[in-house]
């Protein structure tokens, strides 16, 4: 038996994960300037891994580099949101269909766990962990389809989606219910129904994304 050592993230990967998390949760707000020295100090690392992380985030469109070595968090624009929604509408229904056909017991258990996490998020205040649980579900469905390439594309799209959007638009409980229905179709190995349900789910999410942008939009100064 040959064992593979567990992957230990490099400092660049750790910096990337921390910055991505801050962007998705809104701790780093759209338009906010990123001070590299401050980030490095907070993370307890040198400037090099932070620069590497910002370079990757720039490639993904999550930060923008401006003259004089200034880096700012990208704005949530309607054009960007519409593009993400369009690509999700193409890729995620196919992922759900593949999951219904290919998912093994471990994959089904991962989707089930994501649904349980989402159910817990709807209890009480209905906000704690909601964004993470939502992403967990969609990534689990994508992984269950058995296509690493498709799962990777979907994961890249989810990095563009603000985690707080679900709770701010009041779609938390409805999304949790929709996840359960999609899971049932996958468990029944009903690929066409899983595809249809995911398409409808993503369509509602696209409408919610527009509502989120309306909520965070700052009125122009007179």
UniProtKB/TrEMBL annotation:
Lineage: Bacteria, Bacillati, Actinomycetota, Actinomycetes, Kitasatosporales
Keyword Transcription: yes
PANTHER family with a match to the protein in the record: TRANSCRIPTIONAL REGULATOR, GNTR FAMILY, UXU OPERON TRANSCRIPTIONAL REGULATOR
Superkingdom: Bacteria
Residue ranges constituting the HTH gntR-type domain according to the UniProt record: 9-76
UniProt keyword list: DNA-binding, Transcription, Transcription regulation
Protein's UniProt keywords contain Transcription regulation: yes
Signal peptide: none
Family annotation (InterPro entries): GntR_C, TF_FadR/GntR_C, Tscrpt_reg_HTH_GntR, WH-like_DNA-bd_sf, WH_DNA-bd_sf
Matching PROSITE patterns: HTH_GNTR
SMART domains for this protein: FCD, HTH_GNTR
Protein name: GntR family transcriptional regulator
């Amino acid at each position: 038996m040959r064992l593979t050592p567990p992957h230990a993230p490099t400092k660049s990967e750790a910096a990337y994960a921390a910055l991505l998390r801050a962007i998705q949760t809104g701790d780093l707000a759209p338009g906010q300037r990123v001070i590299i020295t401050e980030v490095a100090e907070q993370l307890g690392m040198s400037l090099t891994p932070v620069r590497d992380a910002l370079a990757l985030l720039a490639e993904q469109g999550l930060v923008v580099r401006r003259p004089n070595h200034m880096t700012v968090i990208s704005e949530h624009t309607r054009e960007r949101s519409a593009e993400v929604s369009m690509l999700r509408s193409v890729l995620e229904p196919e992922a759900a269909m593949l999951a219904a056909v290919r998912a093994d017991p471990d994959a089904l258990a991962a989707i089930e766990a994501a649904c349980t996490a989402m159910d817990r998020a709807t209890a009480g205040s209905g906000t704690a962990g909601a964004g993470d649980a939502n992403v967990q579900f969609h990534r689990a469905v994508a992984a269950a389809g058995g296509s690493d390439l498709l799962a990777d594309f979907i994961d890249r799209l989810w990095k563009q989606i603000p985690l707080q959007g679900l709770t701010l638009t009041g779609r938390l409980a409805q999304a949790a219910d929709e996840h359960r229905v999609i899971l049932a179709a996958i468990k029944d190995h009903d690929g066409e129904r899983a595809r249809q349900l995911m398409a409808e789910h993503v369509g509602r999410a696209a409408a919610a994304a527009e509502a989120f942008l309306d909520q965070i939009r700052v009125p122009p100064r007179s």
